[in-house]
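Service request form, structural biology core

Requester: graduate student, group of Dr. S.
Request type: structure prediction, single chain
Budget code: on file
Notes: please return the result as structure tokens.

Sequence provided:
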Amino acid sequence: MLTFLIPMLVMLGFWLGSLYFSSSKIVETTASIVRKDVDNKIASRLQDNPSPSAEVYSGLVDDISDYLRTFTNDKTYERSVVATLLWVFGIGILLVIVQMVLLTIFFSHRIAGPIYRFERACHALIEGNYTDEIHLRKYDEMKNLGRLINEASLLSRQRIAALSTAATREERDKIVAQLKLGVDAKA
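Core staff response, request fulfilled:
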């Protein structure tokens, strides 16, 4: 579970970091554009006037107010911000989807492969083949269950061999008496 959870948390952290970075860059760029444009307006209005009058300041404030009103309604800037955010979110979502697909494939092979092998071993036992053993890959899950099935197969094989080689009925009855069959073995 941790091998699945940790990469997901890393990707989530990466995605949130990307979102924070892109949002901060958009805000920083917007503030920089506004600051530069306001500074240019102030400089152009006040550059030739060493002691401006109240009317000049009033006109400057009106110009800055008009600029800010126009800037906030600027659809081109709004579209560029939305496009940037969509790229960041799109790449983040794409990376998360790719990671989920890869992790799903990885984990399904580590779990589905052993399950398939267990089914084959159980069918072999049902058919009377007690020689099959389960061998799992190094990183497969459920190795304990594989060992348990192998041990059950081995013990069943040994008990059947002991029953088949028992010389007398008493030896066979003794072996059967040690088994918990849930039925009356002497019948």
